[in-house]
Amino acid sequence: MCSPKEYLTVQDLSQSQQFIQLDGNVTLLSDGDESQSPIPVYIFENRKSPLCQPYRGRYLKTVRRNSLILQSLHLPIVMNLNPRSLYNKTDDFYEVIEQYKADVICISESWERENFTLSQFLDLPHHQIIKNVVQREFRGGKPVIIVNTDRFYVKELCPNPITVPIGVECVWALITPKQCSPQSKIKFIAVASFYYRGPKSTKKDELFDHIAESFHLLSAKYGPHIHFLIVGDANRLNLSPILNLSPEIKQEVKVSTRLNPPAILDPIISTMGRWYQSPITKPPVNANV
Length: 289
What we know:
Layout: E1 10-11, E2 19-20, E3 29-30, E4 41-43, E5 53-55, E6 58-61, E7 64-65, H1 67-72, E8 78-81, H2 90-100, E9 104-107, H3 118-121, E10 127-131, E11 144-148, E12 152-156, E13 169-177, E14 188-195, H4 204-222, E15 226-233, H5 240-243, E16 250-251, E17 258-259, E18 262-263, E19 268-270
Parallel strand pairs: 3-7, 8-9, 14-15
Antiparallel strand pairs: 1-2, 4-6, 5-6, 9-11, 10-11, 12-13, 13-14, 15-19, 16-19, 17-18
């Protein structure tokens, strides 16, 4: 799971570019927005600094808020989940969404049933479920994306403008933060949830080609304000063809998502890593008792 940066290890914006540690509850002024009044920060050090002013025995210092923190406030908390069927794990699944306040849940193996779809089965009134109609005929796989519609506008991208080849298990959606400001660097987020079966699959090249074509199509359509979030179960797939699409694309998961033997099977690939904390792993979703 990947969360936006909400902590405050704040980089000093002076020429020295040093790091300072601020204790206590801190609210900082947005850099570049002079309409807001500076908010004082109580500190007890650097009393000789020209930026410090005495106030009731304490010293005040005004620090401009790092733009990364500002931007991250509007970004989704992202969860990458492979439950291998949601139909017998709903109780724990609801608790996980509530506990971690997840806004974007990418599920690589939903095992959705044609005669009882996830939209019919799941009780998520504040979320939208996005799926790809054509994926596979037999049981397994079927990635989906679930988005918190209280915080994000959602546009389905499959089958128009993105057509997923038959046999490639992937689904796309475009989300827009509802609190997006004109100054925001991230106005659109293209989200992809995929599932790759592993060495037995014959669709490796088709998957890479599909992601590359979709990446270039959306980049041309939405320009520099679009960012990407490509999440799924890669099953030891070499991700270099995806990572080479742009120098901004990084694989953010650095801890094992399977413990025995240790391996990173569930990547979170994104152009937004600078705005996020490092992903962490949590216990698996348990079956209903």
